[in-house]
Amino acid sequence: MAESNLDLFIRVAEKASASVLQDCDTVFAATYISEHLTGTLLLPHSPSLQRLGIQDTLAQAGVNLVTGDVRQQAAAAGGGLTGANFGIADTGTIVLESTDEATRLASTLPEQHFVLLDPGKILVDGIAAVAPLRALHQRDARNFIAYITGPSRTADIERVLTIGVHGPKQLHILLLPGISDDPLEN
Amino acid sequence: MDKKRNQLYRTQIDQALATPKLQQALHQFGDTYLLARENAFAGLDFEALRTDISDMKDKVRDNLEHYLDEFCRNAEAAGATLYHAASAQQANDYIAQLAVTKGAKLVVKSKSMASEETHLNDALEKAGTRVLETDLGEWIIQLAGQRPSHMVMPAIHMFKEEIAELFGKETGQEEPAEIEHLVEVARQQLRQSYLDADIGITGANIAVAETGGIALVTNEGNARLTSTLPATHVVLVGIEKLVPTLEDAAKIVQVLPKNATGQLLTSYVTWIRGAVPSGDGTKDLHIVLLDNGRRTLAASPNCKAALNCIRCGACANVCPVYQTVGGHVFGHIYIGAIGIILTAFYHGLEHAAELVRACIGCRACVTVCPSKIDLESIILSLREQVGDAEGIGAGKALVFRKVMRNRKLFHSLIRAASLLQKPVTRGERTIRHLPLFFSSLTEWRTLPTVAEKPLRDLFDNLPQQVEQPRYKVALYGGCANDFIYPELGIDLVTVMNRLDIQVSYPKEQNCCGIPALYSGDKETAVEMAKQNIDALLKDDPDFVLTTCPTCTIALQRDFVEHLHDNPAWVDKARRLAAITVDAASFIVNQLQAADRFEGLPGPERVTYHDACHLKRGVGVWQEPRELIRATGAELVEMEHADRCCGFGGSYSFTSHPDISKNILNDKLKDIENSGADCVAMDCPGCLMQIRGGLEKQEKKTRAVHTIELLAERLKTKS
């Protein structure tokens, strides 16, 4: 039997040095983040995360949240938490529509990036991803859309793969079933 | 030819060859790259993918203004400011002026080859703006005051100790030469700059006409920071990066990282369209569309395919010359095979003149190019242009124009050479030492002598007893088979006769013209094509057999290309192309007679060396192996079996013997490591090179042409 999109996604994302957690719920996700986070957590606006009420759960778990002026506090933050529009199985990629600047800052500046993704929103490959990519371009006049595969990396010194150069050093993908079935939202 | 420039270039080569550590690093990278690339493409059809990309890029190139208009309309509608830069100077002036207007003190940049092409940093610094490269490799070479030696990995030529020293100067303390530590130093040192910078400058891997947006394909995350934090974002992008739709862009994204470094996908692919939110307002987004020779390239009938390049750098990764001398020598700003071509159009033919001659023509780059660019043919056509502009050297010009075109004169001079060489041959078939200023040519390989009697003189006396010939076959010997290795022609007759084939040798055949063509003298090549077509078609043979793959390419492909617009000749050229076949393929495919060699005496451990022009020019590599196995010999594959042996015709004699020697040594090591007693090949040029190298190093392994191996076995049996 052919590998499912989900299994393929997990296998390839882990190979790209992402941590992938399956069958999470809100409480588990919040606990996981509080256990792994070093410093404050940037939490930009995200419809799926808002519906989950993750902000309260995180606060209960003792996470120090930054929700207001993300730009001012981004550089000092330890981590960022975002949703994801959808995943791409064959490259282990999460797609994050991040035209909103806070979402961009939360996923580029801190050392840790936590992502909540609905495992039902995983497409097979980059060609299948074109349909939602185009839909996002049709919905919004201006776009900043990120395909993120594993943490930041470089091989610029003696071709040795080294994780975590300018972007996040860790990418944690938490799979939460039932949080969103719409690839146009994150 | 510019002698001073040529001397300077040779000095650079000598310096590069004196850095074995660099060579070792590039060789290792070449090996790991190929493996990673193969894994990355597992389950995908690379040929189909690259045909798609090539077709799509053809369409864009031929309708460039249409797609450019569409892109600009959409980008402007999304709030971008567009600037069309006809030249590097215009692009630099625009961006420098923007920096001045904004009072910008600091610019952060992510990696952009287009900005290297225009020397943008110099222009900005002159305008009083500090420029900071943030890509790790680019930052390293910025600190070192150098230029990239690879398009994807700019600092591939540097080692961690040198980098630690550079970083130490920045931090003011000693930095340990540990890679992980050095990467962290870069992170910490550059971090604040993203926040402080007034302008972020990026390139673009793709510009999508459908959306008016760009895509950045990156790993480090610096391009995301560069395009997010500063209030102004400048995109400098060559107009060749256009694609029509998001589907087309997705196809490039699918192939680019796999072919560049063997990654399934880079850490980040970022799609940016228009002036996105930034701080309290929106980003000031400027897109500078760079021509700087691109429209000229698009209009060049012989070279335009080079505009399809997606900048993966693979052509350098697999190039034996690049692996031997590195990108600073085998490149100008752009490096490797594509670099030679882009240099000619973006920086001027004079900057490419030495580079076009440094290409050995092995076609390794052509097989991995994701846009299916025939890089070798384009480089060849540039060599022609350099030849026309600068001359090909008085010596070569005399030989090609006055001598080779006159077959009788050419052949009588070779015969004379066979007499003149006697003082150095000592009656042997190989020359081990040449006197005086020729001595360097035999320092690293012996050379075969010119045979006392060429094949053409021996041929009519060969007893050919074939009662019912299956086909009428003419042998095209080429210079090597005729004058250097006549015994190879005799062996071919032995083998063919055993397979009930009668062989003729048309005496008016001449050199195939490739040496003249490769030296930039097309006119002579065309004249030779005509002479050979007449000679070979005269008795209307069923097939023309070849033992040299370079001749095979000439007969199968080049003659037709030379004469395609000459109605008196084109049909004849096509006829000859259709009936020309290399000897091994003829036996295996046409005669289906590989089994006729079964049960011959053996066993011997044989390894096979793929001649560049046979495997990547003619597309033949299985047939000779099938024949070797059929003889009962044990076929053991060497590493890098299809890597060039370094011969390259006049490359190894006059153009770049030192590079040739290094590439040969790589091959000899691979042969030795295979543990074979014998290395077989189907090219007299490779045979000259490899046999010469093995003899000089006094190795026991022998080098043979596959046809010789077959004849040998037949003779032992009977």
**Average pLDDT across residues of chain B?**
94
Structural class of chain A comes to alpha/beta
Question: Unreliable segments of chain B (pLDDT under 50, ≥5 consecutive)?
Answer: none
- CATH C-level name of chain A: Alpha Beta
At CATH level 3, the topology of the largest domain in chain B is: Rossmann fold
- Characterize the overall form of chain B: elongated
Structure description:
The complex is a heterodimer of chains A (186) and B (718). Chain A is an alpha/beta fold and 186 residues long. Chain A has a single domain, classed as 3-Layer(aba) Sandwich (Rossmann fold). Helices cover 31% and strands 23% of the residues of chain A. Chain A is built from seven helices and twelve strands. A six-stranded parallel sheet of chain A has the order 1-12-7-4-2-3. Chain B contains 36 helices and 22 strands. In chain B, a hairpin with a 4-residue loop joins strand 5 and strand 6. The two termini of chain B are 56 Å apart. Strand 9 (143-148) of chain A pairs antiparallel with strand 9 of chain B.
Summarize the structure.
The complex is a heterodimer of chains A (186) and B (718). Helix content of chain A is 31%, strand content 23%.
List keywords for this structure.
heterodimer; A: 186 residues; alpha/beta; Rossmann fold; six-stranded parallel beta sheet; four-stranded mixed beta sheet; 7 helices; B: alpha/beta; Fumarate Reductase Iron-sulfur Protein, Chain B, domain 2
List the helices and strands and how they pair.
The complex is a heterodimer of chains A (186) and B (718).
Chain A (H helix, E strand, L loop, with lengths): L4 H11 L3 E3 L4 H11 L4 E2 L4 H6 L1 H7 L4 E2 L3 H4 L5 E4 L3 E3 L4 E5 L3 H8 L3 E6 L4 E2 L6 H10 L3 E6 L4 E2 L7 E2 L6 E6 L11
Parallel strand pairs in A: 1-12, 2-3, 2-4, 4-7, 5-8, 7-12
Antiparallel strand pairs in A: 5-6, 6-9, 10-11
Chain B lengths: L2 H15 L2 H21 L5 H17 L1 H14 L3 E5 L2 H14 L4 E4 L3 H6 L1 H7 L3 E4 L2 H9 L15 H12 L7 H18 L2 E4 L3 E3 L4 E6 L3 H7 L3 E7 L3 E2 L2 H16 L6 E6 L3 E2 L2 E2 L1 E7 L3 H5 L15 H4 L2 H6 L10 H12 L1 H10 L5 H5 L6 H16 L3 H11 L2 H14 L1 H4 L4 E2 L15 E2 L6 H4 L13 E5 L1 H7 L1 H13 L3 E3 L9 H5 L3 H16 L5 E4 L2 H15 L6 H10 E3 H8 L14 E4 L3 H7 L3 H9 L3 E2 L14 H6 L1 H18 L3 E4 L2 H13 L5 E4 H12 L1
